[in-house]
Amino acid sequence: MKDFSKQSIIILGSGCAGLTAAIYAARANLSPLLIEGSLPGGLLTMTSEIENFPGFPEGISGFELMDRMRKQAERFGTQFLSGQVDRVELSEACKRVFVGDRFIETEALIIATGASPKFLKIPGEKEMFGGKGVSICATCDGAFYRNRDVIVIGGGDSACEEALFLTHFCKKVTIVHRRDQLRASKILADRVQSEPKIELVWNAVPQAILADENGFTRGMIVQDKNNSQSREIACEGVFLAVGHEPNTKLFHGILPLDDSGYFIKEPNSQTRTAVGGVFVAGDCADPHYRQAISAAGTGCQAAIEAERYVYSRQSSV
Ligand code: NAP
After folding, report:
1. Is 137 tagged catalytic?
2. For the domain that residue 153 is a member of, what is the CATH number?
3. Spacing, Cα 46 to ligand 1 middle (Å)
4. What does pTM read for this prediction?
5. Residue 314 confidence (pLDDT)
6. Does 1 reside within a domain?
7. Is there a catalytic annotation at residue 140?
């Protein structure tokens, strides 16, 4: 096994932000160590088609984009460690990252741990998640619902993308949204509203997911916000697209977080935290934009800041 015991830069997370930071740090000759986390390549690997990442006029699959970024980071000398960080100790003087039964010290740390899909916390959701009709990923599970009726919950870009993707397989896709208009970008909202296989159910609050006698999804109960009446919509699959929460639990009490759990950055900085030498990038620190390109942008900024930090410490020794 390679000895990773002392590093100049460690990057946590292998999504757009982490891999971009790795490309920049590697090209600065800092041989970064990137710890991949539980989903190598991050959430984008679960996206079907990315149409708004500059440089790909025909679009590119999320998996391919992340694979290309990984190869680019590798080409310049990034080392990869698969696994998850269990604990960190962070101070200006000493930064330690614990992985399994060992720890690694580093001069600078870039945290790019991303965000995870939210759940509704309604009856039936947990019981039928992962194989019995409740899913958070149309790209992964859509093909199982060929010629069936499904529901997508949410009104943002993710819900629209999931619904459009599902029309390739499903007989009918019903979007259940708790408001009377979509919050998605206009281009996606227009596509959804002109797609004959998609029906929109407005002002509908999900209340429960129903199981058949074998424990598989057979429908959903929604409540109309206008008259409080509940009704059942039959379906064999429910796809959740109700937003994300930042993956920052590991840092509670160690780095400043806002009420929603996003990292709070130092004034006038996109990436610096309250602890010198610790930087943040991507969705774990961005409640506003949450785009692949903006994650890549902050990954680049974090790497440049980390590079300056490491070289300034080395030149002052
Ligand atoms: P989002 O924009 O936060 O939308 C989440 C949706 O879920 C909202 O419509 C919200 O309803 C609904 N929702 C939340 N909690 C709910 C609950 N308990 N019950 C019912 N509905 C609930 O999340 P997103 O769609 O995942 O997008 C996140 C970010 O990624 C956005 O900035 C988006 O632009 C970006 N994104 C971009 C692309 C793209 O550019 N191609 C693709 C995917 C995502 P309300 O509207 O009432 O709050």
Report:
1. yes
2. 3.50.50.60
3. 16
4. 0.85
5. 80
6. no
7. yes
